[in-house]
Amino acid sequence: MANQQKILLVNPACLDARISGEDARIVPIGLYYIGALMMDKGFSVSILNLADIRDDPVEVFKTIVSRQQPDIIGFSVINSNRWNAMECANAAKKIRPDVTIVFGGPTPTFLADHLLTACPDIDFIVTSEGEITFLELATALGNNRDNSFEQINGLVFKQNNKIFRTLPRDPIAEPDSLVHPSKYFAYQHLSLSRGCPGKCTFCGSPKFWGNQDLRFHSPEWFADEIQALVEKGIHHFYISDDTFTMDKQRVIEFCSLIIKKKLAITWNAISRVDYIDADILSAMRKAGCIQLSFGVESGSEKIRKRLGKPIVQDKIITAFSLTASYGILPRAYFIYGSPGETDQTIQESIDLLNAIKPLSAIFYMLVIFPGTHLYQSAVQKGLVNDDLWYRKIEDLPWFEIDEQLDFTKVKTFGDRLRSEFYSNLDTFVRQIDLVDIKELYPFHAQFLSRLAMTFSHGEYAADTRVKNQDKTAKQLYDRALSYAPDARAFLGLAMLLQKQRRFDQAILILEKGLNHWPENQDLNVCMGVSLMNTGRFTNALNFFEKFKKIPEMHQYIQICHQNIARIKT
């Protein structure tokens, strides 16, 4: 029998607008796990993503609450969205006074006392992993068993005007026992594991999951999840494990299953430079991995140790070279403005940047949050306390509590790093050295043409800091075709020629591509456009009409008919 309670799960909006970076705008996978479990138990569940809307998120939320009249609203809260979560909680109570408000996620786990004081509208906080705790709480609420809340592990709530904490909940020992979120939802971000072996001092993950509580889905469970999502029409994934490759054999088995299932997917993952080798990279590339991100953090050994990344420099350099050699784009995360940061340590980061030659890089100013070692250390030294979070801020930049640093100096550090990366990116690309393994040739072609597209028509093409965009793109497209025929390479070369208005040469390139992929929509459209620009509208029409059921083709077809009629008259 279906449970009559209605549950609304919410991903709140961040305090500061996001210009880029889709991670801040996606629904956390934890909400999908909770939603799937609740739906499997008969609850009515909907998920609202306020982080990816342009309108006023509170007004959108109020409209949804008024329409749905939920009994329980659960918010997934991190530091950057806590204010929106509190504003929505207050709005919900005004619309529906009897609604139960539940906060969960990293910030409620680490700042429970603060949030319950700052936001009296919160009824319960679920700490750490939320699936079982939320289910037991919703069940107790549905049964009107108010006196049973103290028996539910993993809760924090107010009782007689005092904050009451129940016993911590044991981690879920077998993640495979959870309901597949893909049974009910479609999404691109997913995770094989829970926990991380690292001890990064700027990261709250170790404390949230527990360093010793590394748990995994089986390769079969994870591959089945992806297969179900592919059947829903999703073909690119972001695997968000803190260290995806920490269990080598498990990852290789997962990759083998993806290959065996013949799933035509691409995916990105995150790892550490000390958790990869040729075997795992080969397996990942064949299974569709196209990007692997590594936390380099700093070129200074002293700062890497302070940040909890005591990895020798040679291992970092080797990991980037090895990753690129298998046709997986290596992306580097750098942090600047750390304790002890100086012009010299930034120069060491620049030197390491030029040694590892990343093909993508993200540069972060060091900020600290509750739950991290750096934040706890600052609290113990009396530099900050939790009252800080009454301010309407997302985070605390380290330089604000470091007498040796200030905003101007730290901004200069970031500017130097970014300038060095973008001004040398074309050189890094020319120095890619791919492994000479014939079975990887088609993958090499895909890798090179995908990278080329970012220079000719993608992210790097639009960035004035990047040098020689078209020249670099052409070199990459040509090199891709030296490994294997590749539709994107033919298309990219043709579009470069179109930009130069060399339409006849573009047609010759497209003819070669269409010999391999006669039904490829992009190649057909590009051919049609090239023919139109040479006045051959009747020929162009043939390429557009193959896809006349697609609305985007209508404008091209209409232009061709108009010009054919004009020529006849």
UniProtKB/TrEMBL annotation:
InterPro entries for this protein: BchE-like (IPR051198), Cobalamin-bd (IPR006158), Cobalamin-bd_sf (IPR036724), Elp3/MiaA/NifB-like_rSAM (IPR006638), Methyltransferase_Class_B (IPR034466), rSAM (IPR007197), rSAM_horseshoe (IPR023404), rSAM_sf (IPR058240)
Gene3D superfamilies: Cobalamin-binding domain, Tetratricopeptide repeat domain, tm_1862 like domain
Cofactor: [4Fe-4S] cluster
Signal peptide: none
Pfam families, sorted: B12-binding (PF02310), Radical_SAM (PF04055)
Radical SAM core domain span: 182-420
GO molecular function, one term: 4 iron, 4 sulfur cluster binding
Domain B12-binding: 11-148
Domain of life: Bacteria
Coiled coil (UniProt feature): none
Residue stretches of each TPR repeat: 487-520
GO cellular component annotations of the record: cytosol
Keywords: Iron, Iron-sulfur, Metal-binding, S-adenosyl-L-methionine, TPR repeat
Name of this protein: Radical SAM superfamily enzyme YgiQ, UPF0313 family
Native species: Desulfobacula phenolica
